[in-house]
Amino acid sequence: MLSIFKSIPSHMDYKGQKLAEQIFQGIILISAVIGFVYGLIIEQFGWTVYIVLAGFVISCVLTLPPWPMFRKNPLSWQPTIPEISGESIQKPQESLKKKKHK
Amino acid sequence: MNTVLSRANSLFAFSLSVMAALTFGCFVTTAFKDRRVPVDVHVSKVMLKNVDDFTGPRERSDLGFITFDLSADILLEYCYSKLHVLHSTYFTGKWCLNQVLNLRDMKSKYFFFDDGNGLRANKNITLTLSWNVVPNAGVLPLVAGSGQVSLPFPEAYETTKSY
């Protein structure tokens, strides 16, 4: 069952991750300030907790799924080099084996 | 922050830290208030008996029954959950948000025992109201109301004295 969840792509690029972190920190801080002031005015701490929880849910919806705005700057990978012969594959394997024996 | 779980982890940890800071702010804004309130206590009936006290010393002890009225303007900002009268719990309940406390004709729930015979003909019995404040965050003070009533107990047993 876990393989279904693992097959859904959820990556963001680096600028997207930075944007997502700024978004959720900003939303939670704003909702905390609003909640604290409102709770202080009506003298019930429960409403402060509710408002912060609402901010938490909003930021969950905005930052957990990989929206397209977080994938605007993808990394540019080099093009793949097609494999030439079997020798170039075996050499790195032998050097790996020598390192392991040490 | 590449996977959903990693983002969820940092989101949750951040909101929990923010919540802790808000709770501290709640403590700072409420813990230093003076909560003493004038209290009006009237006693309507006192009865005195001399009975065997099975939980105390083996001699017979004085047992008092008090019927009283109580009114206090307790300004409740956060929910208090217990009302302690006369240093033992006479009334428990949830009081939230600015309720004026008005109890009429309450009979004592717990036994008003004196170990010995100190209640008979006692010139000065003082009743005061004090309550525990149970806040959402912070210290748990025991607040004493500022009113009290002093009354002498009856001279003899098994008789009621009305006020």
Automatic annotation (TrEMBL), chain A:
Keyword set includes rRNA processing: no
Source domain of life: Eukaryota
One GO term (biological process): protein targeting to ER
Main location: endoplasmic reticulum
One GO CC term, this protein: signal peptidase complex
Transmembrane segments: 21-41, 47-67
Keyword DNA damage on entry: no
Subcellular location: Endoplasmic reticulum membrane
Keywords: Endoplasmic reticulum, Membrane, Transmembrane, Transmembrane helix
Pfam families, A to Z: SPC12
Cited InterPro entries: Spc1/SPCS1 (IPR009542)
Membrane topology per record: Multi-pass membrane protein
Subunit structure: Component of the signal peptidase complex paralog A (SPC-A) composed of a catalytic subunit SEC11A and three accessory subunits SPCS1, SPCS2 and SPCS3. Component of the signal peptidase complex paralog C (SPC-C) composed of a catalytic subunit SEC11C and three accessory subunits SPCS1, SPCS2 and SPCS3. Within the complex, interacts with SPCS2 and SPCS3. The complex induces a local thinning of the ER membrane which is used to measure the length of the signal peptide (SP) h-region of protein substrates. This ensures the selectivity of the complex towards h-regions shorter than 18-20 amino acids.
Job description of the protein: Component of the signal peptidase complex (SPC) which catalyzes the cleavage of N-terminal signal sequences from nascent proteins as they are translocated into the lumen of the endoplasmic reticulum. Dispensable for SPC enzymatic activity.
Similarity comment: Belongs to the SPCS1 family.
Protein name in UniProt: Signal peptidase complex subunit 1
Organism whose genome encodes this protein: Cyclopterus lumpus
Upper lineage: Eukaryota, Metazoa, Chordata, Craniata, Vertebrata
From TrEMBL, chain B:
Species whose genome carries this gene: Cyclopterus lumpus
Family: Belongs to the SPCS3 family.
Record field: transmembrane: 12-32
UniProt key word Mitochondrion: no
Compartments where found: Endoplasmic reticulum membrane
Source species, domain of life: Eukaryota
One Pfam family, short name: SPC22
Membrane topology, record value: Single-pass type II membrane protein
Keyword terms, alphabetized: Endoplasmic reticulum, Membrane, Signal-anchor, Transmembrane, Transmembrane helix
Gene Ontology cellular component terms for the protein in this record: signal peptidase complex
Name by which UniProt lists this protein: Signal peptidase complex subunit 3
Role this protein plays: Essential component of the signal peptidase complex (SPC) which catalyzes the cleavage of N-terminal signal sequences from nascent proteins as they are translocated into the lumen of the endoplasmic reticulum. Essential for the SPC catalytic activity, possibly by stabilizing and positioning the active center of the complex close to the lumenal surface.
InterPro entries the UniProt entry points to: SPC3 (IPR007653)
Signal peptide segment: none
Keyword Membrane: yes
PROSITE patterns: PROKAR_LIPOPROTEIN
Gene Ontology biological-process entries: protein targeting to ER; signal peptide processing
